[in-house]
Amino acid sequence: MSTKHEKILQYIESLPVGDKISVRQIAKEMQVSEGTAYRAIKEAENRRLVSSIERVGTIRIEKKKKENIERLTYAEIVNIVDGQVLGGKDGLHKTLGKFVIGAMQLDDMMRYTDAGSLLIVGNRFKAHQNALKAGAAVLITGGFDTTEDNKLLADELELPVISTSYDTFTVATMINRAIYDQLIKKDILLIEDIYVPIEETYSLKTTDTIADFHKLNLQTTHGAYPIVTATNKLIGMISVKDVIGREESETVDKVMTKNPISGSMKTSVASAGHRMIWEGIDLLPIVNDDGILQGVISRQDVLKALQHAQRQPQHGETIDDLVKAEMKVMGEEDVVVEFTVTPQMTNQYGAISYGAFTTLLSEVGSFALKRRKRGDAVAENMTIYFIKPVQMESVLTVVPHILDMSRKFVKMDFDIFNETVLVGKAMMMFQLLER
To answer: Could you tell me if 357 and 363 are in contact, meaning their C-beta atoms sit under 8 angstroms apart?
Structure first.
């Protein structure tokens, strides 16, 4: 039996692409409070089922597949450039294949403008008209308007005409950045990309017995299963070790692990994998905000996904990637790392930012531990001292020293030099992850 929240989401998903929705409309249609409707619409926005646009409202958009995440909708373009929709509102759900900057003669401009394009241009009314007739949307820069005829044509063809106060160069930069951010998101695997859905998941009810567990385990050999109520709400987990020495007639709710660790669809696969290893669990149940079981992931699922991701081409670079790219390992036995401070890693004063500096030390420490064959580690806490400011384009030498090491924790000290001058020191504690 579905909850009110799920029913609203199913209703929104059933709406035709391009339909406008509102909190009041959903509340009236589904006979729920406006608060419940608002929360469901926000969840639909997170799932990319709808998009909220100022001066337009919330509209149903086509849910984009992960592999096509770099394709932005015109609705998202409106948000990015803080634009105003002059016409063609019914086409905001459509995606653009490319954008064209109209800084050329009209005939030359039209050679590059085709269906699915977005023409970025100033107050050139003829260019607006020709682009619409070619099947392209139009983004007018400088806060200019277009003709009434062009607005009517946009409505007829369902191709948005958007106006923004930004100049052409700024708009192109903003859209490029949005596509770049989407590409970085594409590289980060989420649980929603790999989980086994509930339809394919084996689970037990609270009224099932240990005998039922053995029967299911013989059939599937999974070794662990979620325990759910009649409404599929997760209340526990049961594994082979929980049933050792128990009577076959006992119900599973007597031996299950209550309030089990669970994950959500938006948790990253890497984060889930670390947690599963750290907590020593082989199967992680995935639930929604109401605690309803959505599916499961296993350690094998995580390993396969991460191995597959490493074989994919890298599209976008995060700050971590930029820091790693500037690291050069010098020492053969004792690790010594040379590092160049690039302009992207500095703060408003031109000195290395705190975030880039802590990332550098974490990476150097992790590398030093791997060199000692201690596997993966995560930084638990750190204390940093800047003795002298570290300016951009400085070449740093980072020397880590392992002070103490146990089975689960490592204490490490760092000396940071610019040429021969000591510019910083740090103390860090790492948690070692079990293999």
So the answer is: no
Look up the CATH number of domain 66-187.
3.40.1390.20
Find how far residue 325's CA is from the centre of its chain.
22
Q: What would be the CATH architecture of the domain defined by 4-60?
A: Orthogonal Bundle (1.10)
With CA atoms as reference, report the closest residue to 378 among 328, 412, 401, 353.
412
What per-residue confidence (pLDDT) applies to 39?
83
In the chain, where does the domain assigned CATH 3.40.1390.20 lie? 66-187
Largest Cα–Cα distance in the chain?
84
At residue 178, does pLDDT exceed 60? yes
pTM: 0.45
In 160-243, where do the E strands start and end? 161-163, 196-197, 204-205, 224-228, 234-239
Q: Which fold has domain 319-432?
A: Thiol Ester Dehydrase; Chain A (3.10.129)
> Is 32 strand, coil or helix?
coil
User: Which pLDDT score is estimated for 157?
Assistant: 93
**Mean pLDDT of the chain, nearest integer:** 83
For domain 192-309, give the CATH number: 3.10.580.10
- Using alpha carbons only, what angle is made at residue 417 by residues 413 and 422, rounded to the nearest 5 degrees? 85
Q: Which helix (H) or strand (E) holds 416?
A: strand 409-418
> What single-letter DSSP state applies at residue 409?
E
Q: Which residues does residue 116 pair with via DSSP β-bridges, in sequence order?
A: none
C-alpha gyration radius of the chain: 28
317-324: long-range contacts at Cβ-Cβ below 8 A with a sequence spacing of 24 or more?
Answer: 317/184, 318/184, 319/344, 319/345, 319/355, 319/356, 319/359, 320/359, 320/363, 323/356, 323/359, 323/360, 323/363, 324/363
DSSP reduced 3-state for 257: strand
Under 8 Å between Cβ of 323 and 363? yes
Predicted confidence at residue 384, as pLDDT, reads 92
Q: Are residues 206 and 255 in contact, defined by beta-carbon separation less than 8 angstroms?
A: no
As to burial, measured by CB atoms within 10 angstroms (0-12 exposed, 13-18 middle, 19+ buried), residue 237 is: buried
